[in-house]
């Protein structure tokens, strides 16, 4: 199977980089090593490094596993929860 390279515009790449930085800071606040987190998440340390760098090619499931290890799994429920644009489109259909 050929894997395609994930292409993001620089401003969107920055969002992933910020998520990665947030994960790294959360790990450090908990005084967990990369080895501990990667082992508990069931991933290689190299993959955790890629996540902490904000690599968009890493699957969202692996990001979730790291969030779970850091006890931040409820943050995933916040993704796309406030769909303001979608509600406006829906409201236009109601007119």
UniProtKB/TrEMBL annotation:
Name of one Pfam family that matches: HTH_3
Any one GO molecular function term: DNA binding
Domain HTH cro/C1-type: from-to ranges: 23-77
InterPro entries noted in UniProt: Cro/C1-type_HTH (IPR001387), Lambda_DNA-bd_dom_sf (IPR010982)
Superkingdom field: Bacteria
Protein name: Helix-turn-helix transcriptional regulator
Organism: Subsaximicrobium wynnwilliamsii
Upper lineage: Bacteria, Pseudomonadati, Bacteroidota, Flavobacteriia, Flavobacteriales
